[in-house]
């Protein structure tokens, strides 16, 4: 469900600001509105005040793991689709994230940025049906 501006709202939870900037550059401004949280605590604050169409959640955060944050979000009843991202291809982590309710698990490779838009749209559609 796009925002009042008609844009798809995305929260990027990642402590690497350069990574977030690259993601923003790969998403058309006229289609996406991207907010940023640099750690889990900030993400919880932002999500307590705002709603997003989708959350892109990095595993390695400075104050808690992405898994811990995802558990907290689901415990608070947050139902927006979550895409879990990691620099490492880790099948166990992927399964754990999906069991906690993540819609997708993406490894940060050189193709990550070029496929981000399509993955966001696919997951919003697929994971929003049950909300």
Describe the structure.
Helix 1 links the parallel strand 1 (8-13) and strand 2. It contains five helices and five strands, in the order βαβαβαβαβα. The radius of gyration is 13 Å and the shape is globular. The mean pLDDT is 91. The chain has a single domain (8-128), classed as Response regulator (Rossmann fold, 3-Layer(aba) Sandwich). It has a five-stranded parallel beta sheet with strand order 2-1-3-4-5, sandwiched between helices. The protein is α/β, with parallel strands linked by helices and 131 residues long. It has helices at residues 17-26, 40-49, 66-75, 91-99, 112-128; strands spanning 8-13, 32-37, 54-58, 82-86, 104-107.
């Amino acid at each position: 469900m796009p925002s009042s501006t008609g844009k798809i709202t995305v929260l990027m939870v990642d402590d690497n600001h350069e990574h977030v900037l690259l993601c923003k550059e790969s998403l058309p401004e006229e289609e996406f509105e991207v907010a940023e949280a640099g750690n889990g605590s900030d993400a919880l604050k932002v999500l307590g005040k705002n709603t997003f169409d989708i959350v892109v959640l990095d595993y390695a955060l400075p104050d808690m793991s992405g898994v811990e944050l995802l558990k907290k979000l689901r415990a608070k009843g947050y139902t927006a689709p979550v895409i879990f991202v990691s620099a490492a291809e880790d099948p166990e982590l992927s399964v754990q994230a999906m069991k906690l309710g993540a819609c997708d698990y993406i490894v940060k490779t050189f193709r990550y940025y070029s496929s981000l838009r399509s993955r966001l749209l696919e997951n919003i559609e697929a994971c929003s049906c049950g909300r």
